[in-house]
Amino acid sequence: MVATAVRAQLARTPQTWVYLLAVVAMAILLARHLSADHIMASGHHMHGATGMPQTTNALASPWLWWMVKTVAMMFPVAAAGAHRIAQASLWRRRHISIAEYLTGYLSVWAVVGAFAIGLVAIVWPHGAPKSTIVVALLIAAAWQVVP
User: Fold this and answer.
1) Alpha-carbon distance 98 to 88, whole Å?
2) Using 50, 70 and 90 to split pLDDT, how confident is the model at 127?
3) Most distant CA pair in the chain: distance in Å?
4) Spatial separation of the C-alpha atoms in residues 35 and 54, rounded to whole Å
5) With contact defined as beta carbons under 8 Å apart, do 112 and 67 qualify?
């Protein structure tokens, strides 16, 4: 009965699983944010928390989190395109077409993330200053209001 309802939902709106992936990515980010290791790494102290997060590669971990954030924030935006792709595809290939579209979409953000993280690592080898986020947000706000 549940499987029939899921199939019916996916037949009407094939991009539903794109939204589900975004929700899962958001849940992962929320869990990380609330974890003791993340609190310790961000400079906040919590009694009873032990150690720093164990990361073997200093650039791989931020890039992986970049990708999780990209799925959480950009897949809801890409869902409209996924819907159009599904409508234009053969019925039996709808979900494969959506997966290929999202792979291409995510690969562009993967390259941008690798470049940005590498650039930050070169410019600030010991971590970016706290004022960097303020500057980045002001640039983003200016980008939004400029025609």
Assistant:
1) 11
2) confident
3) 56
4) 13
5) no
Which residue type, as a one-letter code, is found at position 68?
V
User: What is residue 58's predicted lDDT score, i.e. its pLDDT?
Assistant: 63
- Token pair of 111 as six digits: 């390259």
Sequence-ordered list of residues with C-beta below 8 angstroms from that of 78, at least 6 positions apart, any chain: 18, 101, 102, 105
Decide if 94 contacts 14 (C-beta within 8 A): yes
**Is the overall model pTM greater than 0.70, yes or no?**
yes
Alpha helices in the chain (DSSP H): 2-12, 16-34, 36-41, 60-88, 94-123, 131-145
Are the C-beta atoms of 66 and 90 separated by less than 8 Å? no
SS3 state at 123: helix
CA–CA distance, 141 with 139 (Å, rounded to integer): 5
Q: Has residue 107 got a pLDDT over 90?
A: yes
In sign, the C-alpha dihedral spanning 80, 81, 87, 90 is: negative
Instruction: Check: CB of residue 104 under 8 Å from CB of residue 23.
Output: no
